[in-house]
Amino acid sequence: MKPEEVWDPRGLRLRQVRDRLHESRLDALLVSHLPSIRWLTGFTGSSAFLLVEPGSATLITDFRYRTQAAEEVGDAISVRITGSDLFAELALCLEEGDSGPRAGFEDHNLSVRDRRALGECCGGVMWEAAGPLMDALRSAKDSSEIESIARAVQVAERALVEWLGAVREGASERELAAELVYRLHLAGSESMPFDPIVASGPRSALPHAHPGERRLREGDLLLVDFGARVEGYCSDMTRMFVLGSPAAWQVEIYRVVSRAVESAIEATEAGVPARSVDGAARDVITGAGFGDRFGHGTGHGVGLEVHERPSVNARSRDTLESGNVVTIEPAVYLPGRGGVRLEEVVVAEEGGRRVLTTFPRDLKEL
Amino acid sequence: MKPEEVWDPRGLRLRQVRDRLHESRLDALLVSHLPSIRWLTGFTGSSAFLLVEPGSATLITDFRYRTQAAEEVGDAISVRITGSDLFAELALCLEEGDSGPRAGFEDHNLSVRDRRALGECCGGVMWEAAGPLMDALRSAKDSSEIESIARAVQVAERALVEWLGAVREGASERELAAELVYRLHLAGSESMPFDPIVASGPRSALPHAHPGERRLREGDLLLVDFGARVEGYCSDMTRMFVLGSPAAWQVEIYRVVSRAVESAIEATEAGVPARSVDGAARDVITGAGFGDRFGHGTGHGVGLEVHERPSVNARSRDTLESGNVVTIEPAVYLPGRGGVRLEEVVVAEEGGRRVLTTFPRDLKEL
pLDDT of B79-128, one tens digit each? Predict the structure, then answer.
């Protein structure tokens, strides 16, 4: 048995949450965001609350997940199956529980309507917005989480190699996206973290293009932005190809973006403000005269969610911590002509970084 | 040119929203739920607000969607691209706008944190929870929406036929799910409304099973719950197969569920309480002695979202309207042995119903 199969991180994570609650003078925390529930309990269902109290943790879900919850959730966490709805069961649970009157809730996740339901069903509790408490805990990954993301990168890269065999002139973006999803699944991706973007020719200048009916032609730029999911953890990467020989303008923007990637990777390190990583990429692009052609942030955290903390953009207030896993994805978009985006997955470490993506970043001719 | 390509429903839908605002004494509505934004504007991006005022409608999105928004959104709707964030642009828009001080927001969709941001950025406005105003409007589909759902059913059924050729003893659930997604894409599904459920043997008793490594064996029940998406609209259906000859207990629960489906379909009609459709299915299952083996609701609305109004369960307060499109998906789950679920897509009409799913419902032997 390998060591990582023995160690169960859930006890440590629950202790971290309880420490934060103590600091925030909260007696309990209602976790409603499903990726955070998965992180704390292992539960992968689509409907649940988790109530963390000083002496207990209780997962509340419904009938559909009775068997699954029992299998997935460890001994340290009780499971309650509701006969009606999550709020009613939560009220029962709070009545029987050992916590005081001040409970936190995840205000970035709970809707205004659900917040009202919370007040109505659990009136004896003083509910307080807990802020991004869970997001902050989840953003610094441990080694087993980083290995899961690395495996999700490997699965994505294996699928990309297989997929390149199917790329040919005349194929539509939609067909190519279908081929890519198929190969991602066969390579071991549990699900799609997001629908792959396959954008060709002028459509590569649309930062979030849906794959469409456009068919590949000689001279096209081909952008593919995709990821895999392994043990719940996501990868997210972008590579560029060109059908035939690239035109001078394609090579020019490709080189600028490639230098921006290198500069941002060099800047990634624990202790550094995330906005300075954005600045490192943006300065290269602005210096080359394309500053107004790169309108989005340089990257984002990736983990159980494909977009999570920290933000890597000019307005980010996050400081990189050791174990943060972020994408670096600068771009130059020339509307009507085409765009280049390259995207890497990078782990911030003390005094450096580790790049998880390994597929060559050059503008490969197909 | 076909008539449905000429008629643009967006003007009518905006008028319906404005009528509801007038009834609710609201001067404007902030629409934040993306499927509702798509329904009103055609915009398919992943980040936007829509502000509906008496004399104008404004879509606010970011740089990434500049080109796409211009293409997708009709002339009746202005587009504003934010240089910072949606809230700041919304504040500018409200300052310049023609509406009074009372504005509604979608409280089922807006998080507590975003509600606070709304108060901070747009302080001159009195924000009020608008309730499920948009959901109610969207739940009664027009004929072009029903035809889109019908096409999504057809795509799903074509893929199912193709997929059955790949089902054989020894294949894993995960491989079979990958094959199904591939065929759904090739058949014309724009994306997956949800990850298909492929559950075999005892795992068919898990109502929301993830496809796993279990391999198909002689005598297994095989449950497949999947859908397609066409023009944004979803289908959602479930069929059962058995590898080889079914055992007596498999035939027994299959027959019970099949009768429950027929009974619920018969009960589906405009003007009827949705909970009585649930009751029609549940009575059959309870009468057969399996009442405690059917723990979820009978169905849900389907449209631009795979789960939307109306709810078809015992606690539903919805009354079916003409044009509601709902799933009917009763089940019997025998833990450790296996389960049977069958799922149809049905349109409620005046004095009757139309069943959109056409794939035979019998327990097909493979």
Answer: 999 977 899 999 999 988 777 789 999 999 999 999 999 999 987 899 99
Please, which residues bridge with residue B311 across strands?
A: B300
Of A88, A77, A52, A82, which Cα lies nearest the Cα of A64? A82
Q: Is B218 on the interface with A (CB under 8 A)?
A: no
Domains in chain B: boundaries: 3-137, 140-365
Size of chain A, expressed as the number of residues it contains? 366
Domain A3-138 is classified in which CATH homologous superfamily? Creatinase/prolidase N-terminal domain (3.40.350.10)
Residues 6+ apart with CB under 8 A from B141: B149, B303, B323, B324, B325, B347
Tokens of A363: 């503008």
The Cα–Cα gap between A26 and A223 comes to 47
Residue B99 token pair: 């509406």
Q: Which residue in chain A has the smallest CA separation from B193?
A: A195
Residues of A in contact with B64 (CB under 8 A): 207-208, 295-296
> Which of chain B's residues have a Cβ under 8 Å away from the Cβ of A45?
208
Q: What is the ipTM of this complex?
A: 0.89
Flag whether residue B192 sits within 8 Å of chain A, measured between CB atoms: yes
> Cβ(A178)–Cβ(A192) under 8 Å?
no
CA-CA distance, B182 to B23, in Å (whole number)? 47
In chain A, residues with a C-beta closer than 8 Å to the C-beta of B45 are 208
User: How many residues appear in chain B?
Assistant: 366
pLDDT along chain A (366 residues), means of 10: 64 95 94 97 95 94 89 91 90 84 94 95 90 92 97 98 96 96 96 96 90 95 98 98 97 98 98 98 98 95 97 96 98 96 98 97 93
Superfamily of domain B3-137: Creatinase/prolidase N-terminal domain (3.40.350.10)
Provide the 10 A C-beta neighbour count for residue B114: 19
- For A231, the token pair is 């043990």
Which among A66, A108, A210 has the least Cβ separation from residue B111? A108
Q: Cβ–Cβ of B110/A115 closer than 8 Å?
A: no
A233 close to A366: Cβ distance less than 8 angstroms = no
Whether residues B129 and A112 touch (CB distance < 8 A) is answered with: yes
Is B334 in CB contact (< 8 Å) with chain A?
Answer: no
CB contact under 8 A, B315 and A181: no
Closest CA to A166 of A149, A153, A179: A179
CATH superfamily of B140-365: Creatinase/methionine aminopeptidase superfamily (3.90.230.10)
Q: Which residues of B51-87 are buried (b: 16+ CB within 10 A; e: fewer)?
A: bbbeebbbbbbbebbbbbbeebbeeebebbbbeeebb
Test A113 with B115 for CB contact under 8 angstroms: no
- Under DSSP, the state recorded for B107 is T
Q: Which residues of A touch B63 (CB under 8 A)?
A: 207, 295-296
Q: How far is B295 from chain A (nearest CA, A)?
A: 6
Assess A110–B contact: CB distance below 8 Å, yes or no.
Answer: yes
Contact A207 B115 (CB under 8 A): no
A315 touches chain B (CB under 8 A): yes
Alpha-carbon distance of A174 to A146, in angstroms, equals 32
Q: Is B365 left (phi over 0), alpha (psi -120 to 50) or beta?
A: beta
Q: What are phi and psi of A174, to 5 degrees?
A: -65, -45
Element (H, E) at A61: strand A57-62
Inter-chain contact A185–B181, Cβ cutoff 8 Å?
yes
Q: Which chain A positions have a beta carbon within 8 Å of B65's beta carbon?
A: 207-208
Kindly report the pTM of this predicted structure: 0.92
Query: Which residues in chain B have their CB less than 8 angstroms from residue A113's CB?
Result: 107-108, 129
Locate the chain A residue with the closest alpha carbon to B32: A111
